[in-house]
Amino acid sequence: MAKQTTDIIERSLEHLLEEVAFLPQLQGADRTKAFHSLGAILSTPNHIHKSFLRIVRENGEVFRIPAFRMQHNDTLGPYKGGIRFHESVNEEEVINLAALMTLKNALHEVPFGGGKGGVAINPREYTVREMYMICKKYVQYFSDVLGPDKDIPAPDVGTGQREMDWMMSEYKSINPGKPYLGSFTGKSVMNGGSQGRREATGKGAYYTLRYLLHDYLNEHQERLVDTTCTYAQTALAKWKQPLSVAVQGFGNVGSVAALEAYRCSYLNNKVVAVSDRNVTLLNQEGLDISSLVLFSSSNNGELPRTSDELMEAGIQAEIRDREEILYLGVDVLVLAALEDQIREDNVEQVKARILVEGANAPITGEADQILAQQGVIVIPDILANAGGVIVSYFEWLQGRETLFYTEEEVYTMLFDKMKSTMNSIFHSYLGTGKPLRKICYSHAVMKLSTNLYIQGKLF
Ligand code: GLU
Questions:
Q1: 163 CB-near residues (< 8 Å, 6+ apart)
Q2: What is the DSSP string of 33-65?
Q3: Coil/strand/helix, residue 375
Q4: Sign of the CA dihedral with 203 first, then 79, 13, and 96 last
Q5: CA distances from 321 to 160, 226, 255, 324, 343 (A)
Q6: What is the distance of C-alpha 55 from the center of its chain?
Q7: Residue among 83, 89, 100, 201 to mutate when testing ligand 1 (max atoms within 8 A of CB)
Q8: What pLDDT digit, counting tens, does each position of 318-369 carry?
Q9: In this structure, what is the dihedral angle of CA atoms 377, 382, 383, 389, given to the nearest 10 degrees?
């Protein structure tokens, strides 16, 4: 998926170049030149920081672990984005994810740029003490380029509140007397974090689905009349019936999205399948998601994987292979695990009509084009999973003001922010029938291009 984001940025720019109503101040040769400049700026990261963390393991052995912080673009504000701990982390991937953050923030008018960090380890193979050392070392190695007004990390795959708490504490020790609450987001609430941050991505992901199939479509039925968007019409008809939902991934994003779908009173959902790194659980009558959340929270975040464990959890389900979640005949598939799950080689087996990208880049560029040709609705990552960074922004604001919002206030603000993005996106979507991803990227690139132009960066 390495070049995926920059490829789409370039395609958006080619398209915008032809749209005379966009940046009409730029005409003729000046316009062509300025668009080349935009391509050069947005397709490359501003800074690549990489290092090898020196870690002493419990047994005394010394290890060197590849670690990155990529700063893609800061046109709209300080760099912002998570730190991922995963064995597959590599330079290209982190650059791509940083670019995705630039677009996500631009799309939702969050005043941040895009950054991303990564450490190439499998966190499950390290003790708590070793994890603590890795977090400390990460901040020590990159402390010069991090800070509340420079670059603000947050959790991502393999990291959470615990890691952010440790990292902020190290940042504070390195920078005595300086403001530190805004240096990391996704911290625990007791330690200056925001209410609702842990749930924000999963709630936001489900919200995009509900808003499209219920709130927005219900209010704008007239927009469907003359469009080519037949799948959206099918979806509209569907919301009155049970909507079968499958959720890949049962971590912070997937488990919350599944619970939202399970509890939602606006759509008549049946969450028929969930999966994690070990299994898929399937029940055509619907799974009891509350019980599964309870089970996983007291079992290291894992779903039941034997019939004994299912019994212990009080769950009726068939145990299937973990990959099977992707190929079930459901209406909606929420992808809340890792990237590159749906590719050219398996896309034909996907039967869901609506895909929600709770994770970053779970669908490759090639697969995405095939899905678009088939008319499958894809709610793309920069729209669907932005709840996390939006509440990170609220956390950053709360840290600056040292004034904290209630959980209800956070959710209201989150939904208002996502709603205003969705109103502009869905308007174009139903008007043109173009894939949502294209429209989202185009909006984000327009925002960035306009600001780059205003800031005098194009010549
Ligand atoms: N890692 C999350 C993302 O990819 C959250 C980033 C943040 O809160 O800064 O959007």
A1: 83, 85, 131, 135, 155
A2: HHHHHHHHHHTS-SEEEEEEEEEE-TTS-EEEE
A3: coil
A4: negative
A5: 27, 43, 18, 6, 18
A6: 30
A7: 201
A8: 999 999 999 999 999 999 999 999 999 999 999 999 999 999 999 999 999 9
A9: 150
Residue 382 has pLDDT above 80, yes or no: yes
The verdict on whether 116 is a catalytic residue reads: yes
Tell how strand 114-119 and strand 79-85 pair up. Answer: parallel
The answer, yes or no, to whether any atom of ligand 1 lies below 6 A from the CB of 360, is yes
Tokens standing for residue 425? 């996106």
Residue 309 CA to residue 92 CA, distance in Å, equals 40
What is the distance between the alpha carbons of residues 162 and 166, in angstroms, rounded to a whole number? 6
Lowest mean pLDDT among 52-56, 128-132, 184-188, 232-236: 232-236
Q: Which helix (H) or strand (E) holds 451?
A: helix 436-454
Cα first-last separation, the chain: 31
CB 118 within 8 A of CB 83: yes
User: Residue 151: CB within 6 Å of ligand 1?
Assistant: no
Domains and CATH numbers, the chain: 49-195 (3.40.50.10860), 198-387 (3.40.50.720)
For the four alpha carbons of 116, 120, 126 and 132, in that order, the dihedral sign comes to: negative
Rg of the chain over all Cα atoms, to the nearest angstrom: 22
Q: Tokens in use for 102?
A: 């630039």
Q: Tokens at residue 97, please?
A: 């994810």
Tell me if residue 320 falls in helix, strand or coil.
strand
Residue nearest to atom 9 of ligand 1 (CA): 81
